[in-house]
Amino acid sequence: MISPDFYLNINSEEEFERAVWKTFHFQIENCSVYRDYVRLLDRLEVNQLRDIPFLPISFFKSHSVTSGEAEVSKVFQSSGTTGMKRSKHHVIDLDWYEKSYLWSYEKFIGPTQNQVILALLPNYLEQGDSSLVYMVHDLIQQSQSSLSGFVLNDVAEISKRYDEAIALGKQVVIFGVSYALLDLADQNLDLTKAIVIETGGMKGKREEMSKEDLHQKLKSSLNLSQVYSEYGMTELLSQAYSQENGIYNCPPWMRIYIRDVYDPFQLQTVGKKGGINIIDLANYYSCSFIATEDSGRCLSDGFVIEGRIEQSDWRGCNLMVD
Description:
Blueprint lengths: L4 H4 L4 H18 L1 H9 L14 E2 L2 H4 L11 E4 L10 E4 L2 H15 L6 E6 L1 H6 L3 H13 L5 E2 L4 H13 L3 E7 H8 L8 E6 L11 H12 L5 E4 L8 E3 L5 E2 L4 E7 L2 E5 L6 E7 L8 E11 L2 E7 L14
Parallel strand pairs: 1-14, 4-5, 4-6, 6-7, 7-8
Antiparallel strand pairs: 2-3, 8-9, 9-10, 11-12, 11-13, 13-14, 14-15
Helix pairs in contact: 2-3, 9-10
């Protein structure tokens, strides 16, 4: 077993590339699901990053995606509507996850020590085994404030804790799934001094809307100058954050690539829309090369998300899932 320092110490493109190749060869040897997929594509021998195959994310619903034979410490499951098959991420070493999310949170949001963190994640709590709940619970514990906690739909309690935290000179962070934040926005609270982080979508609770419209609604109703976003998923141990304008940035060990939805082995240039591929080196003991079902664009200063890929447009990557 190697330490998370493997990715935490990446400070340059050269170090990132060396770590990518080390990870690729390790997973080809130790992750049977990924190896079999790459073998079917006849891409076991590649020498450019752009040629590395990305495993369709749906494999996490049908297979146990692990690298090596070490004992699994925790199984995270995705959220989902009734009857939907949930993705499972079998995590061998939780230290890799904990160090990853803490580094990114403190880099993009700020140190937990002077924060009061309020979480509105009802559906994640109801379904259980959520990696997001695990992360936010740990951040709440690290804030060491009795005001921090999961507050669900109790608007009066949210307002009370917000006012108390501001009076104490604390930075209030409200971490919420999109539909729960919209429910909060309907109450027209003044949360001027809070950092509001949205994540997770509508989960079938409200009509889907664009990120731009969602953020505009939250800003106008909660008296915010900006709305933050977190982009993460059960299948990844790292997160990207957007601090403004819906443009996300990654930690140094995570990269976003955009693929052509009609030719998944063709990567798009900057500014062109396509399916989102992710390299996440924190996934060392599962699979670090993931083809998601999200669409977006890479920009010169980050990336943007533009929704889900329509099933009719999902080409190539899923042809070998069965």
